[in-house]
Design brief:
Order of helices and strands: HHHEEHHEHHHEEHEHEEEH
Radius of gyration: 30 Å
Number of helices: 11
Structural class: alpha+beta
Number of strands: 9
Oligomer: single chain
Strand content: 5-15%
Largest sheet: 7 strands, mixed
Shape: globular
Distance between the termini: 36 Å
Length: 451
């Protein structure tokens, strides 16, 4: 039986006259502040390894009962019954000999504090998040604050749910073909069409970028080129099924490529929406499988890589979903169809590929493995820039070809399916191993050198 997807108005400021007192705005209600500082409970519970971060320490501090404060007298110790002053030396000697006889207290159970401190940290109600904004834009909901890529435990949460950077593991089968394809030279980046003076202008734009937006607008766009590929940036992926577990902030890539929604049949878009339509604005590109994360002058390599991991896992999951509709028996073919890149203001461009692998014996059915393809020092010299820019632009082209192939095959199957239900003759599985119930060739979507 086929499985189904479960799936402020503008206010004009009034001038304040000298006769009018200036009143500070009322402070936010304490209950509201407390709700905004809550962290999703299961986030801390389910981490296999807890990293020593500021938020983790704040959580530990919240869990430790406050000690009862004891006021130290600033006058000599006096026995209230006899009004006799005690000599401190006598008290110290008394303590050295064992102190008072407490035999009458044996067997008395000490009072239990209102809440104990567990050895393993439990749900948090506090924490800060550098990238967190208010409301939906940061993935913060009324139920609590989620962990973002600026927290080391964010990366641990991805790992615990099968999203890993795996440079030492098994490569996707089409790794060599991808490398060959992306290494092709491009006429638009030849020394005659992209002379050294253009490279100097790029270096100046990169150096003058004072913020992350400046790097994106002035430097990275020069690398990405002007291909007619649907793309967007800084759009919240607020339509996708929570992954993993809904305990981390919603992805918001700096750049992503996708396909025009009208290219896929309407009934398929509706059925697969939670996996292939990233935004509630359904006019934006769908089935994203190329992503770039950029950082400004103060950006962190750890943060940008964590963001790229999250982006790529969502893209790979979307491709996996549409492959499950096309043919469940070849849903997992050990090929990579998702590409991600990171760019730092020091000129380091790194390109990755991600592919899904079914696993057993884990709490998750699928591992999303990201491996590094190449890295380039884009500020080094003109030839290095041309090579790196060609690699990235070829990656955008190849990702588009992957999307086009899957969309065409999905449309073809839907058109030839007699039932009105697009999933009635196939098994769409985006989160588990496939069923071997089809005879479609597993090589139909593999990459060849002539792509």
């Amino acid at each position: 039986m086929a499985s189904r997807l479960h799936l402020p108005p503008h206010i004009r400021k009034r001038k304040v006259t000298d006769s009018e007192p200036i009143v500070d705005p009322a402070p936010e209600p304490a209950s509201k502040r407390q709700k905004q500082r809550q962290t999703i409970a299961s986030f801390w519970d389910n981490l296999s390894r807890l990293w020593l971060t500021r938020r983790a320490l704040e959580e530990l501090g919240r869990r430790i009962p406050e000690p009862v404060s004891i006021e130290r007298p600033d006058h000599p110790i006096i026995d209230k019954a006899t009004k006799k002053k005690f000599n401190l030396a006598d008290l110290q000697r008394f303590a050295r000999h064992g102190g008072p006889d407490l035999s009458d207290l044996r067997g008395y159970s000490s009072p239990t504090p209102s809440h104990s401190v567990p050895l393993i940290m439990k749900p948090s109600q506090s924490g800060s998040n550098k990238r967190t904004k208010t409301g939906k834009e940061s993935g913060v909901t009324s139920s609590g604050r989620k962990s973002s890529a600026y927290d080391a435990n964010f990366r641990q949460k991805l790992k615990d749910n099968g999203v890993i950077e795996d440079d030492l593991g098994a490569e996707p089968e089409n790794s060599a073909a991808i490398q060959t394809r992306l290494a092709r030279r491009r006429d638009s980046l030849s020394s005659s069409r992209f002379p050294d003076v253009d490279f100097k202008e790029f270096r100046k734009a990169n150096k003058d970028a004072a913020s992350e937006d400046g790097v994106k607008m002035n430097a990275f766009r020069t690398i990405a080129g002007t291909a007619a590929i649907p793309h967007q940036g800084d759009k919240l992926f607020n339509n996708l099924v929570d992954f993993p577990g809904g305990e981390i902030t919603v992805a918001k890539p700096d750049w992503y490529d996708g396909s025009d929604p009208t290219e896929l049949r309407k009934e398929l878009r509706k059925t697969l929406s939670g996996y292939i339509e990233p935004s509630t604005n359904d006019s934006l590109p769908m089935l994203p499988n190329f992503f770039t994360e950029v950082k400004g002058p103060d950006g962190s390599l750890r943060v940008v890589l964590s963001q790229a991991l999250q982006d790529a896992s969502l893209g790979a999951r979307g491709i996996l979903a549409i492959r499950g509709y096309i043919d469940p028996s070849t849903q997992y073919d050990n090929n990579a169809y998702t590409i991600a890149a990171t760019y730092l203001p020091n000129g380091l461009l790194t390109v990755y590929a991600m592919h899904p692998v079914p696993v057993t014996g884990q709490s998750y059915p699928v591992e999303y493995r990201m491996m590094q393809l190449r890295s380039f020092a884009m500020l080094d010299r003109p030839e290095t820039f041309r090579e790196g820019a060609s690699f990235l632009r070829n990656a955008r082209d190849l990702a588009k070809e992957f999307r086009d192939r899957h969309i065409a095959m999905a449309n073809n199957k839907a058109q030839n399916t007699p039932s009105s239900d697009p999933l009635s003759s196939g098994t769409m599985q985006s989160d588990g191993p496939p069923r071997p119930d089809s005879d479609t060739s597993a090589d139909e979507l593999s990459l060849d050198d002539g792509s």
